[in-house]
């Protein structure tokens, strides 16, 4: 189907990479100021290779936080140590020339690639402070088109949307059509993904195509969603098609 345009400019592009590491320590490793300091120092030694320097320390209810910055590169880091022994490391990097990628981090861990910035991050996963740790995939923030959404049960999905084709807040829902190089145009309602142009087989399944003929028939569509069903039905030359949806803007596209 032919889609409209959003009629507004996207924000300026700026990608901020967020690298997150989770480390599980034995509770006894942080049950005293001295032991907690030793655990943090193990991670801090690795952070120093990134040029990160401790700037602030703060005791919180049930945790301690440590702030680090690298003024020359723009990196910042937050370490949080919980009384349960759980330690988190969050590094943010806004440098457009940063080599920080998921693939490079994996290569470092498996092949010991000598890349200072990525290598140091890989070392965090292999730090001496714990026998059990986890590197979480990079989160890329600040893109002009939002690429992170959740499923209905709150699991995170990452897409490759590069353009806002249409966006409108109707009386009933927030309607978005975003373009993806891999999916084509994709419909989102209240930020939940409905259907994309690549889902044509699903649409044909609803129609029982090609076993059912719609030629010269009157057809009623309840909740037409992305309009894909309407578009495909019209190719069958029906007598008349009625599509009912709570948002008129959805019927347009």
TrEMBL record:
GO biological process, one term: spermine biosynthetic process
Name of the protein described by the UniProt record: PABS domain-containing protein
Presence of the UniProt keyword Transmembrane in the record: no
Keyword Transferase applies: yes
The PABS domain, residue ranges: 146-253
PROSITE patterns: PABS_1, PABS_2
Lineage, opening ranks: Eukaryota, Metazoa, Ecdysozoa, Arthropoda, Chelicerata
Alphabetically ordered keywords of this record: Polyamine biosynthesis, Transferase
Homology family: Belongs to the spermidine/spermine synthase family.
GO molecular function: spermine synthase activity
Top-rank lineage group of the source organism: Eukaryota
InterPro entries named in the record: PABS, PABS_CS, SAM-dependent_MTases_sf, Spermidine_synt_N, Spermidine_synt_N_sf, Spermine_synthase_animal
């Amino acid at each position: 189907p032919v889609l409209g345009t959003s009629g507004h400019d996207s924000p300026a592009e700026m990608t901020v990479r967020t690298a997150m590491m989770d480390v599980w320590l034995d509770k006894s490793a942080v049950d005293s100021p001295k032991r907690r300091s030793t655990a943090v120092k193990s991670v801090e030694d690795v952070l120093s290779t990134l040029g990160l320097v401790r700037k602030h320390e703060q005791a919180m209810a049930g945790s301690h936080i440590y702030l680090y910055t690298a003024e020359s590169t723009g990196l910042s880091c937050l370490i949080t140590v919980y009384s349960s022994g759980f330690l988190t490391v969050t590094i943010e990097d806004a440098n457009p020339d940063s080599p920080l990628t998921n693939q490079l981090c994996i290569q470092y861990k498996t092949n010991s690639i000598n890349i200072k910035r990525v290598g140091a991050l890989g070392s965090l996963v292999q730090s001496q402070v714990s026998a059990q740790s986890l590197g979480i995939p990079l989160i890329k923030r600040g893109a002009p088109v939002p690429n992170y959404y959740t499923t209905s049960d709150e699991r995170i999905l990452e897409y490759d949307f590069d353009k806002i084709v249409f966006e409108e807040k109707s009386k009933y829902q927030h309607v978005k059509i975003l373009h993806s190089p891999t999916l084509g145009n994709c419909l989102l309602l209240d930020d939940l993904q409905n259907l994309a142009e690549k889902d044509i087989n699903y649409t044909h399944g609803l129609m029982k195509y090609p076993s059912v003929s719609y030629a010269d028939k009157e057809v009623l569509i309840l909740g037409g969603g992305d309009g894909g069903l309407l578009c495909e039905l019209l190719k069958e030359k029906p007598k008349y098609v009625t599509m009912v949806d709570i948002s008129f803007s959805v019927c347009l596209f």
